[in-house]
Design brief:
Length: about 375
């Protein structure tokens, strides 16, 4: 147990150092340019952070699930856009870990775990956001191949990634008619739309994807036909706490900046930290952060132990952490006053970056439905 804790701490210190040395100094520029932070991505790859939790035999670091949460939290503190590259890679690798064959894992995971290439998961469609079972992209069997046709929106890493997993419809049943397919960039019929201009995480690229008669061999199906929805739910159970850790990292960065600021800024002859209202605000922010941290790592523990309540704790971790990220970053902007609203100070960026964590990986409204369904059986 001591060795495991030491390993986690070493991984945290590595991620923290990378954030301090590489990410924080460049975070303003990444946001302003709105381009993929390839140099940051290269640093993460060189230090093995993309595949820290992937088993050794598939090219990863062989660490535990907690380590993935730790890395995501620290990288998000440094640069939220860069942390999206990390969390999206985890999302793209998750279906392989959950249900891919040994051969598929050997073929794709080493490239993804090393950061040699980026991955992407094509789920959302114009009429299928929170309702994943509403996907209309079709995969029709043609001999030993499948022909995929459809339209995906809001896809992270679209056009930048080399390996894609797509949620498709192979049957009429809303859930049992869904299957997952691997498609590599460059496959005829796979194309990408314009880059979306987003409020936050501006260094992460989001595009539409078009699939027009994309032919893939049946060996590119993950799991069996009709098993896609089940796999997807298991994937979300493992990736939602990662989004929670990302939200926690953003919120912690905002809290720490605001805390330091009010100890230096003076009004009415006193520093702001001497005013009771500021002190109460800092206390509330810290309570929220620590509660989120405990919930995220409790979800991580349950995932490690394959607990029966994983869906409940996974959704709670994602929902609560992202909600408090929004609350804490808004409070940080308020504590800085007018300075909090201008881009010379990072808290306005933290606030913009935090918002998406309430939306992707399942909106928080959907998380509350999942939580209620787990409780009211």
């Amino acid at each position: 147990m001591t060795k495991l804790l030491e390993e986690r701490q070493m991984i945290r210190e590595l991620a923290k150092k990378i954030a301090q040395d590489y990410l924080i100094p460049n975070a303003y520029e990444v946001d302003a340019k709105g381009e993929m932070p390839w140099e940051n991505i290269r640093v993460l790859a060189e230090n093995g952070l993309f595949g820290v939790h992937i088993p050794d035999e598939y090219g990863g670091g062989g660490a535990d699930y907690y380590s993935q949460l730790v890395v995501t939290e620290e990288i998000a503190k440094g640069c939220a856009s860069t942390s999206v590259a990390l969390s999206t890679q985890a999302l793209a690798m998750a279906p392989f870990l959950v249900s891919a064959s040994h051969e598929q894992k050997l073929k794709y995971l080493p490239r993804l775990a090393s950061g040699e290439v980026l991955g992407s998961f094509g789920i959302t469609e114009p009429q299928a956001g929170s309702d994943v079972s509403g996907v209309k992209t079709t995969a029709v069997k043609d001999g030993n191949d499948y022909i995929i046709n459809g339209h995906k929106i809001f896809i992270t890493n679209a056009g930048e990634a080399e390996i894609y997993v797509f949620v498709t419809r192979t049957g009429q049943h809303r859930t049992k008619g869904i299957s997952l397919f691997i498609v590599e960039k460059g496959t005829p019929g796979l194309s990408f739309g314009k880059k979306e201009e987003k409020m936050g995480i501006r260094g992460s690229v989001t595009r539409e994807i078009f699939l027009e008669n994309v032919r893939v061999p049946k060996e590119n199906m993950i799991g069996t036909e009709g098993e896609g929805f089940k796999i997807l739910m298991e994937v979300f159970n493992e990736t939602r706490p990662v989004v929670g850790a990302q939200a926690l990292g953003i919120a912690t960065a905002a809290f720490e900046y605001a805390k330091d600021y009010i100890q230096q800024r003076s009004q009415f002859g006193r520093t702001l930290d001497q005013f009771q209202i500021s002190r109460a605000k800092i206390a509330d922010m810290f309570i929220q952060l620590e509660t989120a941290r405990l919930l995220i790592y409790e979800a991580g523990r349950r995932i490690q132990e394959n607990d029966s309540q994983i869906p409940l704790y996974s959704s709670m971790a994602k929902c609560y952490a992202s909600d408090i990220a929004m609350s804490v970053t808004i409070d940080a902007v308020q504590l800085l006053g007018g300075n909090g609203y201008i881009r010379d100070y990072p808290v306005e960026r933290y606030m913009r970056d935090a918002k998406i964590t309430q939306i992707y990986e399942g909106t928080n409204q959907i998380q509350r439905l999942i939580i209620a369904n787990e409780l009211l059986v």
